Amino acid sequence: MQTFTISQLSEEFGITPRAIRFYEDEELIKPTRQGQARIYAPRDRARLALILRGKRVGFSLTEIKEMLDLYDMNDGQATQLAYAIKKFNERISCLERQRGDIEHALV
Fold this sequence. Notes:
Elements: H1 6-13, H2 17-25, E1 32-34, E2 37-39, H3 42-56, H4 61-69, H5 78-106
Antiparallel strand pairs: 1-2
Helix pairs in contact: 3-4, 4-5
């Protein structure tokens, strides 16, 4: 199984090691340790990609954690997918309202 260092993930995703450690502190990712070194599994890498994508569209860390935690429901990710779709639809509605407000303000 391929593993990753904090430096590799930091470089790949264009974020600081401090940001990765923050997501670890928030229990969004859970690397293993070898001495002082953090070892990230492919699962951690995938979760980090989802965290950053969620942040880009405006989800809070709490919302992102809720979506990620549903992965372990052992239902083929059906619950996770349904919840994510619901949250994305809510976010789209919010952004559409904001766009309308902006367009109205510009008139």
